[in-house]
Amino acid sequence: MFSLYRKIITKGKSISMLRLIIPMIFVTALLFPLSSSAAESFRVPILLYHRFGATVADGMTTTTPVFEAQMKYLHDNGYKVIPLRQLVDHYRGKASAPGPKSVVIVEDDAHKSVYSDMLPIIKKYRYPVTIFAYPSAISNAKYAMTWDQLRELTKTGLFDIQSHTYWHPNFKKERKKLSPVALDLLVKTQLNKSKARLETELGTKVDMLAWPFGIYDDYLINRANESGYRATFTIERRHATSTDSLMKLPRYLLVNADSGKAFAQLLEGNAVKRNVAY
Which residues pair with 104 in a beta bridge? Predict the structure, then answer.
């Protein structure tokens, strides 16, 4: 384009031709910014945990020694754990793209082992974590944390508490047994009540949602948008990339077998395929 511009000048072509070519140069620069396209491209693994403990109590338990080894691996191999909020803000045009070897850590369900087992390790490495909680279980179910424990986590500055609906329904099953009107009421209640309760109890902003069982569709996404959620998350086992939709970002559901070499492969984008009973 610029060589053509020079030829026109040297050959004394008409001013009208210059007026045609010069705007084309600027439009081309705007549409195809060579350096920025590469800078915006990224691949970030979002690591999803559920429970911790000394032994594998179920398919979604990561033993505490395995979790600590994973966190040490991130530290020793130059990975940077960034807040989930930072990644979401980039998709929304409010933050720069995550750098190379960026990783996000999240947890679903606000299990009591987050407080007893995960917290000390997170404090050691000062890694940010986002917890997706469903309020009906908090200070109620034996397996869940209390509101006071969640408040303590938020005060560390390392934990952000977001929504996992109000009581973790299976929307696929509910759709089969409810009328469209009843289903719509259930969905709106699950999304709105969870958001309101978390914000009231914790005094924080809730605008991110993890879909229970990873179940979502366009209807659910639209309802989430209407309820004020700006990002929602699935359990697709792959990296989040610059081409993903902010309303269906993938996460790796980790199991205890994702340790050692398997954990390293996962971070590189070569995760072992697993069928996890959610």
Answer: 46
Give the model confidence (pLDDT) of 260-269 as tens digits. 999 999 999 9
- Distance CA(42)–CA(36), nearest Å, equals 12
Rounded to an integer, what distance in angstroms lies between the CA atom of residue 241 and that of residue 257?
25
Residue type for position 163: S
Domain ranges of the chain: 2-31, 42-268
Arithmetic mean of pLDDT, 133-160 = 98
pLDDT, position 278: 63
Neighbouring C-beta atoms of residue 182, cutoff 10 Å: 12
Rounded to the nearest integer, the mean pLDDT of the chain is: 88
Neighbours of 187 (CB within 10 A): 23
**Rounded distance between C-alpha atoms, residue 153 and residue 163, angstroms:** 16
Q: Which two tokens stand for residue 36?
A: 């920025």
Q: How many CB atoms lie within 10 A of CB 55?
A: 8
Each residue's pLDDT tens digit, 174-212: 999 999 999 999 999 999 999 999 999 999 999 999 999
User: Helix, strand, or coil here: 48?
Assistant: strand
Rg (CA), the chain: 23
**Residues 6 or more apart whose Cβ sits within 8 Å of residue 97:** 39, 40, 41, 42, 90, 242
Note whether 75 and 125 are within 8 A (CB): yes
- Is domain 42-268 annotated with CATH 3.20.20.370? yes
Residue in 188, 114, 196, 118 with CA at minimum distance from that of residue 163: 196
Cβ 64 vs Cβ 117: under 8 Å = yes
Q: How far apart are CA 219 and CA 144, in angstroms?
A: 30
